[in-house]
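Fold this sequence, please.
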Amino acid sequence: MPLPKKILLLGSGELGKEFAISAKRLGCQIVACDNYPNAPAHQVADEQEVFNMLSAPELKNIVTKHAPDIIVPEIEAIRTEALIDLESQGIQVVPNANAVNYTMNRDRIRDLVAENLGIRTAIYGYAESEKECLNVANSIKYPLVMKPVMSSSGKGQSLVKSESELKRAWEYAQSGMRGDRERVILEEYIDFKYEITLLTIRQKQGSTLFCSPIVHRQERGDYQESWQPIEMNQDRLREAQEIAKKVTDQLGGVGLFGVELFITDDEVIFSELSPRPHDTGMVTLVSQNLSEFDLHARSILGLPIPEILINKPAASHVVLAEKDGMSPKYIGVEDALSIAGVDVRIFGKTTSRVNRRMAVCLATADSVKEARQKASKAAKLISLEYE
């Protein structure tokens, strides 16, 4: 495939920034888009656009202006119906427009996986009001998890232990919604051993590839740390790979998918899927010979991926903002970097919100346990100050 290619990146957060860097290393031209100026990927792109990506006319105008070869969505809040029209005009949408339309909303992908493919998921139901939440919760039973059908990074997700907590969970879900759909999914609480992200790569030519599973820990529905590799029962690993391949084959297209799965003693349970690099996969920036962003870029461009190797055990740990503020300064970075095997990636977000991810500490070591300790220690050394 001739290079370079012009890529329109829809969403310019920290994942988009790393993808833009990987694609630019392969000679691509990046037009980074978001709904606010100077987003992280804007800072490394060739051109930047700020507009409402939920507006089909605005999205189509930007496409007409830049005439990209490839459109790469990085966030959920996109008018996906417009992507279907654009794909019909011959523009490559990653992984494809239909897959983006399915996966941008938790209800669509959940119904596809559970009902169409017959894959085990948590018992679930949908609600569009507080009253409907009560009816669904009574059917599922407590404890349960409530989250918006469209959100990212765990925003709006709650563990609900009793009826008295439903109102608070409903209100929190509304506050964390992206897009324009006031709908939540309620699902049974799964008592899992651990939760993995299985990065799954569909190629233009060649078989589906898998990275070594990434384990992650969440708080408030948002990832706090992840690590790789994990010693996993081989039967469970094969089952996880079979589920990931079955779902991604159904969706089609090319690119990297982040498939989230619950692992119990007896089974593998599908949780969610993202048609793009995953936040927990930032650990691959130091753990693998090719990061998830490199793999996404290569698969999109039709370039070969001869092998995916683990370099060393590695871990990531997020640095969160503790308050709202503008133009944060980062204190303690040199202390964090004084730890052998630690790297720090500051995302370049211009404003902070409470619990917003602002940076990530990455660590390698001779064991996962040591890598986790290093990444956690480094993250605790970094704080934000404001002018």
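Residues 194-386 form a domain with the D-amino Acid Aminotransferase; Chain A, domain 1 fold (CATH 3.30.470.20). The first strand starts at residue 6 and ends at 10.
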